[in-house]
Each structure stands twice: as structure tokens, then as C-alpha cells.
Fold these 2 entries.
Entry 1:
Amino acid sequence: EVQLLESGGGLVQPGGSLRLSCAASGFAFSSYSMSWVRQAPGKGLEWISAITSGSATTYFADSVKGRFTISRDNSKNTLYLQMNSLRAEDTAVYFCAEHTSRWTWGYWGQGTLVTVSS
Amino acid sequence: DIQMTQSPSSLSASVGDRVTITCRASQNISAYLNWYQQTPGKAPKLLIYAASSLHSGVPSRFTGSGSGTDFTLTISTMQPEDFATYYCQQSYSSPLTFGGGTKVEIK
């Protein structure tokens, strides 16, 4: 059974940093690209970043480019999102998701809440 | 960036109704269109990929159609578990973008 488990969310002050993790199991993690998708409270879904299976290529939405970094450790079956210079508008539930096929997310984690507030 | 526009933003339906949701892309995306279902407090679930292919385990009452810029998700016979919010998403190019969502409520 495919499982994705996010962790690392919490309350952080504006300008602060946070690192999210996504532990994967039940599939060949090292063979799949992965993404982070977020959802602000009461709002829709927003894709923010992706990384290819071997980490060769990363992608970012303009809203987070230059502030967020995506990485992965295939030996630990774990995906990361390093978030710096956090803003109030980054407050959201952050989901990790597996690329079942081209830019298509067949499996999602349960999400972790990030709250940016003073 | 490719803009995705869903309509309606919400609708009311009864169990047994046929429901249709539309999604329009701001440019030609061929068949690179996915549909997701989300219930409150839960992660989205993939329903349809490549515009019309049913994801594993998804009931056959869900169908997708369309290509180019205009797409449709149809639920042939609403079941109680289908009351949720539905999102379209283009998988044509980065940045990946979603429609604004369609909330399907019980009438």
C-alpha cells in the first residue's frame, strides 16, 4: 500500500524558516517524480514545486521561487521542502504527492499545516 | 501560465442526479487534463487522468471527456459519497495549474 506521511508543519513567524518532510513507503520512491501542493484555508489547490526521480530537475511556482527549495533522499525514501522567508500568505496545508504519470498525482499524503503568523 | 476555469463554482444535487462540471483551459492542452475529488479535511483523490481515463479503483459512474480547451466531468448517478469539491488540473506544462473548484452540495 502506498503511503505518504508529511511532517514538520507548525507555527512560524513571518520571515522564518521551516522544513517539511514526506516519508514514502509502499512503492519504488526512487523511480518517481514528486511534488508539493498546498491549500490555503478555505481555498483551492496550488502546485508549488516538483522534483524528478533522480533530483536532476526541480520546478517551482513563481509564488515560492527563490524562497523554497525541494530535495529528496532516495536512500531514506523521503522528500523535503525547505521554506525560507515565510510570509502570511504561505499559510496552508502542504501535501506531498507522487507523480503516477506525467504531472499527474495518483497518491497524496494527508497534509501538514503551516501557519505563518506573529 | 495556463489558466483553468471551472464552472459552476458550486451546485446542488440530489442522490441519483446526473451532474456535469466543465473546465476550460486558456490555451490548447490537448488531453493533458486531470480531475480530482476532495472532501473536507482530506487529501485530493485522482479520478480521471488524460481527460478520459479512469484512475484505478474509481467507480465507472465518473467519466471525463474533452480535448483542446474544453473538458467535462460527468457523474452519471450521484451517490452520497460523491458530495465533495472537484478540481480540474492541467498536466500540459509547468507551472501546473488547477481550476478554482466546484463544490457539489446536497440539495
Entry 2:
Amino acid sequence: DAKTTQPPSMDCAEGRAANLPCNHSTISGNEYVYWYRQIHSQGPQYIIHGLKNNETNEMASLIITEDRKSSTLILPHATLRDTAVYYCIVRVNSGGSNYKLTFGKGTLLTVNP
Amino acid sequence: EAQVTQNPRYLITVTGKKLTVTCSQNMNHEYMSWYRQDPGLGLRQIYYSMNVEVTDKGDVPEGYKVSRKEKRNFPLILESPSPNQTSLYFCASRLAGGQDEQFFGPGTRLTVL
């Protein structure tokens, strides 16, 4: 399985951009990078995913390096409600059509007023 | 509203007393899955189902059973709960294609005394 490495915690000022890094140096060519977040023991929430191109949606942007060994999730204008644990996940085909998401420890992002 | 629901949300029980945690989704998703979340261990997959009457083991299936008689429901059964099954449980669903986002339920906090 491709492993991911994230900093355990980060702080961000409200209204500023939050840039969350993730290393996935053993990623294979057909493995996608997913980002989810979990707000205090609620169910994880999907944010964005990508393969090799940068992606943007209404929640965030995902920047993937050309060699695909790392990525950055960008929340352009962080709010207090963005305080959560953010998980960077490499989606692995674990057999048949069971694309498994393995959640590590993630990054606790704290947005400060 | 598209959602995954779980019941009960909180449960305290005693060792050996059979229990069922229900999971239901209203998005016509083929794929459903159960995870447990424990401090320091992240989310671990218990069982998954690719469609009606098709289920398979995840990473930590011991002590659990599941069934998938209808597309919308995927109950988790603990025949003889033990204290090491005290955990936060999440049900999730998605379309079968694999790229799509996974929707998670709100969680069930189970305590086995």
C-alpha cells in the first residue's frame, strides 16, 4: 500500500489560506489521492481527489507535484468551521472492485480567530 | 437529502449480549462498508459489500457479521460483544465505480462493559 505522511498538526488564521502538505512517495501510477476531513468524531467528509492534474472544487484545491510524490490541499479562506482532522489518502485497489481508503492519523488543522 | 443513517448513535451494553447496528443509505449506492475508529489506529475497515448478497471481509472482521439483503441496508451484527469492540463505528456508501466519493454516516459510539 502507498503510505502517506502528514504533519500531526497545523495552525491557520481565520480568513487566510490553509495549505496542508502530504507526502506519498511510493504512490503507483494509477493510484488516486483523496482528501477527507473529520470534524470532532463526526463521520469523515469527502473534500477532493485527483490523479495527476491539479483539481479545484467549491471546497478546496488540490495541487499534485509532477512526480506525484506529494500533494497539497489548499483551503483558500479558512474559517473556524474548517477546524478538523484532514486525511490524505492514497486509494488502493485491494482486490476486485474494493478500492479501499486507509485512513491514517491525519493533520489536525486548527483555525484561530 | 442524500445521507447515510446509523442507529443507534450511542449504545452501552454488556459482554455477550448480541446487538445490531443498522445502516441505511438513500442514494442507491451499490457499495457499502463498515469501519471502526480507535485512538491512535485511525479508521479500519471491518466488512464491505459490493452489492446485494455480496459481502467480504475487510481488515478487522473478527467478532463481526454483516448482511446485505437489500441495497439500502447494511447492518453490523455483534453476536457476542467483548470489551475490545468498544469503539466508534462508521458506515459508508458509494457508487460501485470506485472514483466516487464515499459518504459516511454520523457514527455509532459503542461501549461494551
